[in-house]
Amino acid sequence: MTTNKDWLTVEDIYEELGRTVPLDTIRSWIRTKRLAAYKPGKSYLVKREDLHKFLESSRTKPEGEL
Questions:
Q1: What residues contact 45, with CB distance under 8 A and at least 6 apart?
Q2: pTM for the whole structure
Q3: 26 within 8 A of 14, measured Cβ to Cβ
Q4: Tell me: the pLDDT tens digits for 11-29?
């Protein structure tokens, strides 16, 4: 079952990332198709799991390595 918590707006992602990534950067990730998103109207929606996959694939070092 899908709930609203499963979907994030660009602003939600901004908050989730601790306001450290500019909104324009998040939109750029979506426009360049680096971050999967849906646009059912005027706003983009991103599945929470797709955001986590994107962040994992963007990591420069594997988890647990120094």
A1: 7, 8, 9, 37, 38, 39
A2: 0.81
A3: yes
A4: 999 999 999 999 999 999 9
